[in-house]
Amino acid sequence: MNKLERLKKRHSAEKRFKFYGIASVTIAIIFVLILIQNIFSKGSSAFQKTVIKVDVFYDSELIELNNGATLKEIYDADFYDLTIENLLKTYPSKNTDEEDELLKLFSSDAEYEIKNAFLKNNQLIDKTITLEITASDDIDQLHKGNYPRDLPEDRRSITDNQLFIYDYFVENEIINKNFNNYFFTNGDSRDPELAGIGGALVGSFYSIIICLLIAFPIAVLASIYLEEFAPKNKITDFIEININNLAAVPSIVYGLLALQVLLATLHLPRSTPLVAGITLALMTLPRIIIPCRASLKAVPPSIREGALAVGASKFQSVFHHVVPLALPGTLSGTIIGLAQALGETAPLILIGMVAFVVDIPSTPIDPSASLPVQVYLWSESAERGFVEKTSATIMILLSFLIMMNFIAVYLRQKFEKRWN
Predict the structure, then answer these.
(1) How large a percentage of the chain has pLDDT more than 70?
(2) Whole-angstrom Cα distance, residue 301 to residue 25?
(3) What CA–CA distance (Å, rounded) separates 244 from 222?
(4) Are residues 357 and 246 in the same domain?
(5) pTM of the model
(6) Which residues span the domain enclosing 278?
(7) 282 and 152 fall within a common domain
(8) What is the sign of the dihedral through the CA atoms of 385, 390, 393 and 398?
(9) I need a surface site. Which of 2, 194, 224, 282 has the fewest CB within 10 A?
(10) What is the C-alpha separation between 123 and 68, in angstroms, rounded?
(11) By percentage, how much of the chain surpasses pLDDT 90?
């Protein structure tokens, strides 16, 4: 084979390699787009909820209140009869069966929504206002086009009479779709139309803050000691090897550790962001130490030598010169480590955050869920309403992860020092 043939063969190999690389990237992008399209197509409707307009008359005889009633009086008042009477007025029903089916078109939160309107304005006695009451899950899915109404009546939960009532609402513009504020402000619920990620959002926030407060200072100080002060011997080599190994340990192992040490031994409160944050901090420590040490190692020796040459101590040269220059890489590694911790599910399940929690936590020691655990819980539910909420929660979680990774890239590019 002569020189020209070898050159042609090499060029052909380079073209094939370039083609394989472009094809691989293209296929990866296609799969990502398919995943995103699938999630968005199922979850975008969760950001809206179906509401039914109801003209509510606050009859003083039914609720036994007067204008200017105190909060305690309003909370103690029974709005059930008032709610039923006003809901039944939305459709000219003829018999008791139709009335029962009409009431099932509204969510179980109807009484609360009517009472809440009076809490905001306690001067509504013997007055009528129009409220938009949240519809039940079946009607919500029907109005969004996710419910097959052409099935036989015995194969669907919505009866023919309820379909007639729904059509009446549509024709008279009584039913509508609004922004689903419940999705962001409510905790978990057995009713899909009322379930939200408010508790999971707050739980994840507390967990990540605790994780950051514990993991970041310990990881940075450990990195500085190992890289700048620790003697190079078998002990430090053993520590370095184990740090690298801990970064590859499955997260569920940290969950088992937290279950035994934090819950069984130290008796910390179960299902709380406090325990979750400590667990995630243990898992995140090696993932911060490794990039932090790499950043410290990337600082040229001349920086240290120059600081020492002008009279700075070892401590001053490290903390006044080396650490600030290594900070961009350290922050970038920290944010990526926190992003990984935000998406963890297995260790949180083991410490009890898989429990059904309705209330939104007010402190880190209150029972809570987290975003990935909420996805796990809702993914096991068969109702279509939970399917869309599962996808919507994944969208929120992906948005946080993408944002955190963008912040990490931005910090690295903005503050990174390039050494010639």
Answers:
(1) 98
(2) 39
(3) 14
(4) yes
(5) 0.86
(6) 198-415
(7) no
(8) negative
(9) 2
(10) 6
(11) 26
